[in-house]
Specification:
- The chain has a single domain (about 10-25, about 35-175), classed as Aminopeptidase (3-Layer(aba) Sandwich).
- Strand 3 and strand 4 (about 90-100) form a beta hairpin.
- It is globular, with a radius of gyration of 17 Å.
- The chain is about 20% helix and about 30% strand.
- It has a seven-stranded mixed β-sheet with strand order 2-3-4-5-6-1-7, with helices on both faces.
- By secondary structure, the protein is an alpha+beta fold.
């Protein structure tokens, strides 16, 4: 066993890549939440929801993109973006499905606001994601998660039928130190630097 120093101001995470090669044909459990398709999302609106859902887990990849680069992804005809709405119509989560690779669907982002954690809503959202991902012409659905994500993410993907096939170590500058996320978000991950 060995340790590799991570420089002050940087973070490191173990990323697990998972896939499924056939639909699990599971039912979507009932939920008071619903999905609303975002047909032509504006980058600023997308970033606001992305922060709301992912800041706790240091989601930042889309925050560092300029408007043109972000719009090229989220407004692409082969990318489907849904907002999760509660009974009052408030946005409380997101689902992004990427079909740009022929025959495949990537669950790019699947998440709910931290306040909904532990209430079973994640199981509903993941079942919705899988149900929508498997459509005609799709022979592989894949996703990745990392050690900075919600602690239940990896086991939830595996319970849903995803199989791990690769791991990598990702290193990157801490987005809180770069100003992309507030310094006080993700208190479970020490800020060093």
């Amino acid at each position: 066993m060995s340790y590799e120093k991570v420089a002050d101001g940087e973070l490191a995470a173990v990323v697990t890549f998972l896939e499924m090669r056939e639909s699990p044909r599971a039912d979507v459990p009932p939920s008071p939440l619903s999905l609303r398709r975002s047909e032509y999302p504006r980058p600023d609106d997308y970033r606001e929801l992305f922060r709301k859902v992912g800041a706790r887990w240091l989601w930042f990849s889309r925050l560092v993109m300029d408007d043109a680069a972000l719009a090229a992804i989220i407004q692409h005809s082969a990318v489907e973006l849904f907002t999760v709405v509660d009974e009052s119509g408030s946005e409380v989560g997101m689902l992004e499905l990427d079909y740009r690779e022929p025959g495949e669907c990537e669950l790019s982002f699947v998440g709910l606001v931290p306040e909904l954690s532990g209430q079973g809503h994640g199981r509903w959202l993941l079942a919705e994601a899988i149900s929508r991902a498997w459509r005609e012409g799709v022979s592989r659905v894949h996703v990745h998660t990392c050690t900075l994500d919600h602690p239940a993410a990896l086991s939830a993907y595996r319970r849903a039928g995803f199989v791990p096939y690769r791991r990598s170590v990702e290193r990157f500058p801490d987005p809180r130190l770069l100003g992309f996320l507030p310094r006080d978000c993700a208190p479970q991950i020490p800020l060093i630097g």
